[in-house]
């Protein structure tokens, strides 16, 4: 590819990126925003449209095409389904070894969304459904996910949290919560000491894809069975499970 071709490709990508950020632009608006030559702009817009990267509406305004968005969404769903499928066997093993319930959750705005669950064997157990949302500040998964965000993203999310008190053990002080997140990042795991519900304790650990934490797994159960005296045993199992899942991604 010669220098002219590279330059043309860059201009085409600039148009595409612009429409990702600002959908609904006319060709003339694209020309003005990117300071492109008129004939070059019309040719590149036409090429992008012919190859289904962008599409125009009845007002001749452009946006990323529905065809491309559909393909991307399907691919993301496939990756998500694959991740959940691969994680179940590890969750089963963790629940079998402990008898307790295991959850995986992901960040969803300022909440945790439960995306996978394997119930424990005991009659008395905690119970969340897939799709349930939990408070970030009072949950082992939520605190774990937040701890491994970069500082800028941490602050952005925390600025939106209400820090409402779920129990007498909930951390509601911003300073103490910052210290808690630092401790989680240093230790590599999180604890929920009856912060979301009295009588329930949880231990969480991050699931990574490369350098990015994409989810967290938690073991949860009644505090009479998941006592502090058993923390070392449970922490080892939970962190090992998180590492095993991460290695498959």
UniProtKB/TrEMBL annotation:
MF (Gene Ontology): DNA binding; DNA-binding transcription factor activity
PANTHER family hit by this protein: HELIX-TURN-HELIX TRANSCRIPTIONAL REGULATOR, ICLR FAMILY, TRANSCRIPTIONAL REGULATOR
Keyword DNA-binding set for record: yes
SMART domains: HTH_ICLR (SM00346)
Top-rank lineage group of the source organism: Bacteria
Domain HTH iclR-type: 6-66
KW Magnesium (keyword) present: no
Keyword annotations of the record: DNA-binding, Transcription, Transcription regulation
InterPro entries, alphabetized: GAF-like_dom_sf, HTH_MetabolicPath_Reg, Tscrpt_reg_IclR_C, Tscrpt_reg_IclR_N, WH-like_DNA-bd_sf, WH_DNA-bd_sf
GO terms (BP aspect): negative regulation of DNA-templated transcription
SUPFAM superfamilies: GAF domain-like, Winged helix' DNA-binding domain
Entry protein name: IclR family transcriptional regulator
Domain IclR-ED: 71-249
Species this protein is from: Paenibacillus beijingensis
């Amino acid at each position: 590819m010669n220098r002219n071709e590279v330059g043309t490709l860059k201009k085409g990508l600039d148009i595409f990126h612009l429409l990702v950020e600002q959908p609904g632009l006319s060709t003339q608006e694209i020309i003005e925003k990117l300071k492109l030559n008129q004939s070059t702009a019309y040719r590149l817009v036409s090429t992008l449209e012919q190859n289904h990267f962008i599409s125009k509406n009845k007002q001749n305004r452009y946006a990323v095409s529905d065809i491309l968005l559909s393909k991307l969404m399907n691919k993301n769903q496939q990756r998500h389904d694959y991740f959940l499928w691969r994680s179940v066997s590890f969750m089963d093993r963790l629940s079998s070894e402990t008898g307790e319930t295991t959850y995986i959750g992901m960040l969803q705005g300022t909440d945790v969304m439960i995306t996978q669950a394997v119930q424990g064997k005991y009659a008395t157990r905690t119970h969340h459904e897939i799709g349930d949302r939990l408070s970030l500040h009072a949950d082992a998964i939520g605190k774990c996910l937040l701890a491994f965000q970069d500082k800028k993203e941490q602050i952005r999310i925390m600025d939106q949290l209400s820090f409402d008190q779920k129990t007498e053990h909930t951390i509601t002080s911003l300073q103490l919560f910052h210290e808690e997140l630092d401790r989680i990042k240093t230790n590599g795991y999180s604890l929920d000491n009856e912060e979301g519900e009295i009588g329930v304790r949880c231990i969480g650990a991050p699931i990574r894809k490369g350098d990015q934490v994409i989810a967290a797994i938690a073991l949860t159960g009644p505090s009479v069975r998941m006592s502090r005296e058993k923390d070392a045993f449970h922490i080892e199992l939970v962190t090992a499970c998180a590492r095993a899942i991460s290695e498959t991604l």
